[in-house]
Amino acid sequence: MSFPALQKYLVRLPATPQAATSLWLDRHGRASGRYFNSTLTSAFQAIREPGSQQIVGVEGFARSHSSSDSGLSLWKLLDHAASDEESIALDRLCRMLHAINFYRQPQAAHTDLYLSVHARLLAGVSANHGNAFRRVLDSLELPHEKIVLQLPPVAKNQNWLLAYVNDNYRRNGFRLAVNAADARHALELLNALQPETIKVDAREIPDTQATLHLLQEAGQRGVRLIFKRVESETVAATLHALAASAGHTILAQGFLWDLPGASLAATGSAGTPADLPIALALRASAAA
């Protein structure tokens, strides 16, 4: 997949940080950006069909720049130090970095890109959510159809805000994913927002009946289900059994298979159970 406008833009980027620009390329060709006194770049974690191990998407995460591809997650630290306006700027910088670092790699032709929209942006932008990001993509002639924007979890009495933002992003042509704490919460969001994708925290699956109901409902409505933070073979086996019982495919994401990394090609070979202790030991630096 070739994007001439993106390639022309990348050629113009400096190889080292410059006072006049907030973006540059490192020696590996990765786009990096400056926020406060920190240098940020992108890492990607695969979203897989667990049975076949086929990769259907990747999620982008902001990481501190590191030549060893093991940068730290600085989002919470930077976000807590920022005003609402600065936090919105950080959110937009990260999404631009992720889009550039995703589309510059040939493996992008076969996957979707999942990008988080952070909670402070929901209330901080007064209208037309997604318009600024859509303009960036259009200027670089990058297809917005491959991008899925992930809305953050909010309190139940703020579901109206999710619905409003959801409508805005759809008007700008983006597909939407919502994050749910568990299966019951996911069922509520499925009915209230009708998203294209629901992501469910899989560290614990306390209610298998609710999860089975969710699988059946999502399957009937054509909604993708992604179980994130899969970290053990036990959880993976539970999900496999539930999917088989419901007769629907699930997708999964987690340290059981992949640590976030800069290269999309590196996500093509799943990790093994032996990798799990290493992944969990690095969780503080690799988790979003």
Helix and strand topology:
Layout: H1 4-12, E1 23-25, E2 31-35, E3 38-49, E4 54-64, H2 75-80, H3 84-103, E5 112-116, H4 119-124, H5 131-139, E6 147-151, H6 159-171, E7 175-180, H7 183-193, E8 197-201, H8 208-221, E9 224-228, H9 233-246, E10 251-252, H10 276-281, H11 283-286
Helix pairs in contact: 3-5, 7-8, 8-9
Structure description:
By secondary structure, the chain is α/β, with parallel strands linked by helices. It has one domain (4-281): EAL domain (TIM Barrel). The protein has eleven helices and ten strands. The protein has helices spanning 4-12, 75-80, 84-103, 119-124, 131-139, 159-171, 183-193, 208-221, 233-246, 276-281, 283-286, and strands at 23-25, 31-35, 38-49, 54-64, 112-116, 147-151, 175-180, 197-201, 224-228, 251-252. A ten-stranded mixed beta sheet has the order 1-2-3-4-5-6-7-8-9-10. A hairpin with a 2-residue loop joins strand 2 and strand 3 (38-49). Helix 7 (183-193) runs parallel beside helix 8 (208-221) and helix 8 packs across helix 9. It is globular, with a radius of gyration of 19 Å. The relative contact order is 0.14.
Rough outline = globular
Annotation, overall tally of beta strands: 10
Distance between the termini: 28 Å
Based on helices, strands and strand pairing, what is the structural class? Answer: alpha/beta
Rg for CA atoms: 19 Å
In brief, what are we looking at here?
This protein has 288 residues and is of the alpha/beta class. The chain has helices spanning 4-12, 75-80, 84-103, 119-124, 131-139, 159-171, 183-193, 208-221, 233-246, 276-281, 283-286, and strands at 23-25, 31-35, 38-49, 54-64, 112-116, 147-151, 175-180, 197-201, 224-228, 251-252.
